[in-house]
Amino acid sequence: MRVLVESSDVLPLVDLEIALPVGSLQDPTGQEGLAQLTGHLMRRGPRGLSQQRFEDRLAALGARLSVEVSMRSTRVRATVLRRHLEPLLKLLADVVWRPALRAPDFAKLKRRAQAALTARLDDDRTLGAVCFREALFGEHPYGRTLSGHADSLARIGLQQVEEFYARHIAKGAFVIGVAGDVTEKEARTLVDLHLPSPRRRAKKESVVPPTRARRGRHVVIIDKPERTQTQLLIGTLGARTLDRDLFPLIVSNTAFGGTFSGPLMQQVRAVRGWSYGAYSRLLHSTQRDAWYMGTAPAAEYSADCAALQLDLLERWVAGGINKAELGFAQRYMINSHCFDRDTPSKRLEARLDVELLGIPRSYIDKYDQRIAGVTRQQANEATRARISTRDLTIVVVATANEVASSFQRLSGVKSVEIVPFDRI
Amino acid sequence: MGAPEVLIERLNRGVRKRNARWTFVRDQAFGDALTLRRFRLGNGLTALTLVDRSAPTVSYHTWFRVGSRHEQPGKTGLAHLFEHLMFNETRSHPSGDFDRLMERAGAEANAATWTDWTYYYENAPRDALPLLIELEADRMSNLVLRVPQVTSEKEVVANERKLRVDDDIEGKALELLYDSAFRRHSYRWPTIGSMEDIRGFTVRDCRDFYRRHYAPGNATVVIAGDFDERKALSLVQKHYGNLPGGRAAELPTPSKEPSQRAERVFQLPAPTPTEKLLIGYRAPAFSHPDTPALVIANEVLFGGQSSRLHRTLCLDQEVALSVRGSIAPFIDPGLFEMWIFIREGQRKAKALELLDREIGRLGRNGPTALELEKASNQIELSFLHSMETAGGKAEQIGFYETVVDDGAAVFDRLAAYQGVTAADVKRVVAKHLRPSRRTRVEIVQRAS
Question: Minimal CB count within 10 Å: which of A38, A179, A186, A347?
Fold first, then answer.
């Protein structure tokens, strides 16, 4: 068992986290949403306490608790007033290792998860994001949604949750993080007292096959009525965490679409006023994750905005970034890095990522040197090697009959698929 | 930190211009460990400093006492559009320079506008403070307003309106709620403005607004974080000391809202799979003595998964997917907003009945001792979270200074919450949360 401590006596607050290397990648095919349902059922409290008494106890301690499930991790996080640290730690340990997993709670939770899928249809940005990953990754596990689908949720019973819990959490590896108004010695004493015996548990990293890009440019229109504005995502495969050229690609992407001053934001928003936001994001994981641009143009010029973005993308990949853009991105990233570590909880999260997600320690400890060491040649070679202008997924949430023909005319588009928004 | 009187004497030595001479106003304790200092420049600029070396960062806030409440019908959204324009060209810096210089320094720069105020902020590494001061002083007086910038920014704001209102059910419902709950007061129009007004703004509108509201006498600068106070004040003196003083703009007083005597109900058809209820009870001003008890009532009703309405509507009866409540922190009386996100197949009448039952119970019996303890602890937790970073502290100081004229009042407010009794909650719920004082927007499904 690893215990990571970030001490700070600035405020009488403590953040606690039990981080487990299990997430939606462990969802069995056809039971997408199982990891999240398991995490959320644990959140309903430990054995011996009704949900109501559990919630009362948390609130009375001045604590907030969340269970956040991602592709590769489940993070049980709590924040508590310093004076109530010890009872909260005990409660948190019970949530993870003595969860009630009650049938009535499960039935309610499942109904809630299904209702949340319906309510999600109101949120165009989420619809776009979910559809983008599904369209980009297809059947690959990276294309799964954390919350599953109505069909997959229907296939999950309490038994599946219990089995998932027993297999991946009860005896799985974990890391403990403590940040805030507590000394390292105090934290370790409390953890030793209230958490399971510190025997080392093997961390089982699931083997994920490589991701593959679909050939050509493909448009998916999520058809929703009465849209005056569209949500537009254009992207392709991104990077692996252990790619040698990850940092050059991060710097290059920052120069292109990671700041307000970059060409993407300047051309889309500052020059034309077409979208409130315009950005590009590079994600990395054990296999190549996504790279994408996001904008929200009005319906009448959504396709024009997409064409502009494609043009900017081609220029970036073919021409690369110049010396001034490289220097600007490097200074921005190094100078603003202090905001990645200005609170104990942020410092703790970075260390937990190292332990949990296999991020090399030097990415955190030598961040500034790694950024500063990127040359223009490395940045441009990484961009050309990793970012495809040919194989692109274009997702737009819009009223289809207003935009379909104009998206069909975009350069190089091989297919246009229209999906009703209530089938996402 | 040295003695403020000595500091001021040194800073004013040899300074002849009245506008550039500092006055020390007072020290105030800011929690147990920090001190908030108030200074005033001769031209009327108020500066509040909070030295806090817990992280190598600094936050620089500029709060203007102007928001959408100061607009006129036909010109709604001008305060917000102006916030956008402030990131453009000045006589000293070409278009785009502001963002480039900020980003190169590692600073995050942004702004916000609401009914009563507009503020601009930068969170930056501590070494960037001289740049922040120079650029903020520059745009307070040297902004260049021309047709291309205004035209482009109007398009951005029109897109923002589509994002936040026209295509957003919650945004649209909130707009209808305030338009229906207020008939005279300027809180009735949206801060982002109507699309017609946004499209209609001219360069002249923007120049008039700038002259009228953007002046040292209408602004408060807050500097929080790891910085040298003497150097910071010296730089503020250097860059703002040349700006003309004069009186703060005479702002129109919004019309007083007549009291509401009957419930108002409106329907908003929308392309949504689930119905929603948005309810606004007339609530007192942020500084009113009843507000802390109403905030505790909000915590009892809506605060987290142990709250009464979450438990009743979301967990026990499964009528709603989620609920939330908040009290608008306005200078004049605003609304206590309540949202109920109803589940597919459930009836809004049932949700309303359960809401009324819980509010009635709270008004008759008050909260339990456990509920009061929970509310107090949860509010303390939120308060501490808001104080985690230099930016969080600066925001609290700027807000309290602008809304209640006391940047350190956040601690008094916390004490007021902790002093609320069950009888207080019972009294304010019975007084303010009556159906006749509410406006209800029912979001209903429109067949596509």
Answer: A186
